[in-house]
Amino acid sequence: MKRLIFSILLMIFVLPMMAQSARDFIRMGNKAYREKQYDKAETMYLKSIAKAPTFEGYYNLGNAYVMQMKDSTAFENYKKADSIGTNDPLRKARNFHNMGNIWYAQGMAASRQQGGNAVSAFQRAVEFYKSSLRCNPEDDETRYNLAMAQHQLKKNQDQQNQNGGGGNDDKNKDKQDQDKQQQKQDQQKQDQQKKDEDKQQQQQQPQPEQKKDEMSDQAAEQLLNSAQQDEKGVQRKVNKHQNNRRRSLEKDW
Fold first, then answer.
1. Can you tell me whether residue 100 is helix, strand or coil?
2. 179 pLDDT band (50/70/90 cuts)?
3. CA-CA distance, 97 to 107, in Å (whole number)?
4. Comparing C-alpha atoms, which of 83, 76, 99, 82 is closest to residue 145?
């Protein structure tokens, strides 16, 4: 009797579960997802993948993780969905779109944090949005998200360039201190060089006092020569006068 009851229960509860296909679990997961029971949806999608890994299974599982704020895990499942692939370009575009959304969100978070690498995150977001548009060029939502990602990318690149590569205030402060120190050293070097040049110019130019002395010596020498010439002239005049006188006296004798 007990065995009969156990067999009946097995047929009612267990065998139907065993008989359910991967597609059945996806349907149950989708129902739970619409009812916002994201943890239950996650369980159903995992069971579907255990039965048969499919693009849809991984894609839907990624969505369930996103709704539970598990972006990193969601991204890994989107990657697995992409590796399996699908013949539906719209689904493929949606998968890339969601991957872009994850990187865009990470970029926005990084831009609000000191030292965050927002540029890298926005670059990846741009790449995935472009991949999405290649699959579905008519998706206005993706086109809008791409424009926003490109805007944020340029904005953060400009900020990074202004901060000298940016990210860290301490590094920027250290760089500013180094620049100031270098400027101070350059200014000291220029001042010393100017002093050396001024000193060299002073050495090359004759000093006023030395010129005055040289002129005094020359003048003294000229005066001395002139005095000697005058003395010789006077002596000649005296001698002449004496001779004349002698001759005069002699003449008078």
1. helix
2. low
3. 15
4. 99
Answer whether 68's CB lies under 8 Å from 39's CB.
yes
pTM > 0.70: yes or no:
no
Q: Confidence band (pLDDT; 50, 70, 90) for 165?
A: low
Other Cβ atoms closer than 10 A to 112 = 9
Taking CA 95 as the corner, what is the angle to CA 91 and CA 98, rounded to the nearest 5 degrees?
Answer: 135
CA 63, 65, 67, 71 torsion: positive or negative? negative
Name residue, tokens 């992409």: 82
Residue showing tokens 């009946």: 8
In angstroms, what CA-CA distances link 93 with 88, 107, 235, 239?
9, 21, 128, 134
What letter represents residue 199's amino acid? Answer: K
Neighbouring C-beta atoms of residue 246, cutoff 10 Å = 10
Give CA–CA dist 239/188, Å, rounded. Answer: 76
**R_g of the chain, CA atoms, integer Å:** 52
The residue type found at 104 is Y
Alpha helices in the chain (DSSP H): 2-9, 15-19, 22-34, 38-51, 55-67, 71-84, 89-111, 118-135, 140-162, 169-204, 208-252
Give the DSSP letter of residue 206: P
Tokens of 217: 């010596």
Among 98, 93, 103, 87, residue whose Cα is nearest residue 60: 98
HSE-up of 81 (CA within 13 Å, CB side)? 27
> Would you say residue 210 has pLDDT above 50?
no
CA-to-CA separations, 65 to 36, 72, 125, 217, in angstroms, rounded = 12, 9, 19, 105
User: What span, in angstroms and rounded, lies between the C-alpha atoms of 164 and 154?
Assistant: 15
